Amino acid sequence: MQDPQQPPELTPFQHGVIGALVGSIEQAIMRPSCYWKAQLQQQRLTLATALNPRYAYRGLPVAVASIAPVTAVQFAAANFCLDAIRRTKGGAALGSEPTEMERFASSAFAGLASASVQSPFQLVEVNQQNNGGAMSTCARKVLDTYGIRGMYRGSSMTFVREGIFCSSYMAMAPILKSRILAQRPELSDNSATMAAAVISGTIGATLSHPADTLKTRLQGSLFDDVKASGPRDLLRKLRENGRVTRLLFQGFAPRVFRIVSCTY
Predict the structure, then answer these.
(1) Residue environment code for 231-264, b if the CB has 16+ CB neighbours within 10 A, otherwise e
(2) Which terminal residue of the chain, N or C, has fewer Cβ atoms less than 10 Å from its own Cβ?
(3) Does the structure show a pLDDT above 80 at 216?
(4) Residues 6+ away with beta carbon under 8 Å from 23
(5) What are the phi and psi torsion angles at 75 (to 5°)?
(6) CA atoms within 13 A on the CB side of 119
(7) Do 202 and 211 contact (CB within 8 A), yes or no?
């Protein structure tokens, strides 16, 4: 039974609304780092475009339009999964603090759920960054040329990336914060939050970046005359072109900066 002095738990809908609002604000602030990351991954970035707001803010409308439902799905799905786990454990578990394993399971589930929404939006976003034009024009071109299947090019890598990313910021960060405060009670809440964000954000970015690079390259090459058929074919081509690890981690610096910042 919930402590009457504790504030009532938020519903999945309320979690979704909060997530949508926070995600939209974060995208508007961090848009240049997203552009730099995607262009570095595709080996397309130049100093002139990196410093030009006309390019750096390309794709902002579609990013904001996508991040609101994506973040809403993440928060709502994680809350739904935790609630389902508690119910399977019985009434005594309702209202109790989730275990570490439950946090990771619900966060991974949230990432998988949101990836199905996010993948088409990011495909449009990447191609709009590369080629310019209106969001609607880009989406229509994809649908007219490849149909709905084309919107999900690279989606398997989106699922991998989001499962790792959501686990890092929704599960690992609060767990690390609790452990840091337990071992260093003299630290302020803000200092523990910052330390947890840096550690969890860096780990999450490192583990998920190869999948993000493969996703971005697959999506960005949609209209190329010669393109990889999927992640395995792209990995083979990257091995032929140079050191695969170096290529997979292009764009890592702006991405880890963004992930640490939004985790904090």
Answers:
(1) beebbeebeeeeeeeebbbbbbebbbbbbbebbb
(2) N
(3) yes
(4) 67, 68, 70, 71, 72
(5) -65, -40
(6) 24
(7) no
